[in-house]
Design a protein that fits this description.
mainly alpha
Length: 67
């Protein structure tokens, strides 16, 4: 499924609390499990609104493709 740009932008620009930093506060990456959990909650919210949504795997792959 091709990801809707608006859905992708909304998810990409949301603070997911999944970013991880080292002791010097330098970004080291994303916690994949936390990002998947955020994607699941995000997509459930959109489904309740009746929006056609991608899968969690598609959305997180799109996210990683943008960073």
């Amino acid at each position: 499924m091709r990801i809707n740009g608006d859905i992708s932008d909304l998810f990409f620009n949301t603070d997911h609390n999944s970013a991880e930093y080292d002791s010097n506060k330098r970004f080291v990456g994303y916690n994949h499990d936390k990002l998947r959990e955020a994607a699941e909650l995000f997509l459930l919210s959109l489904e309740r609104l009746g929006v056609a949504v991608p899968t969690v795997d598609e959305l997180t792959a799109d996210f990683y493709g943008r960073i």
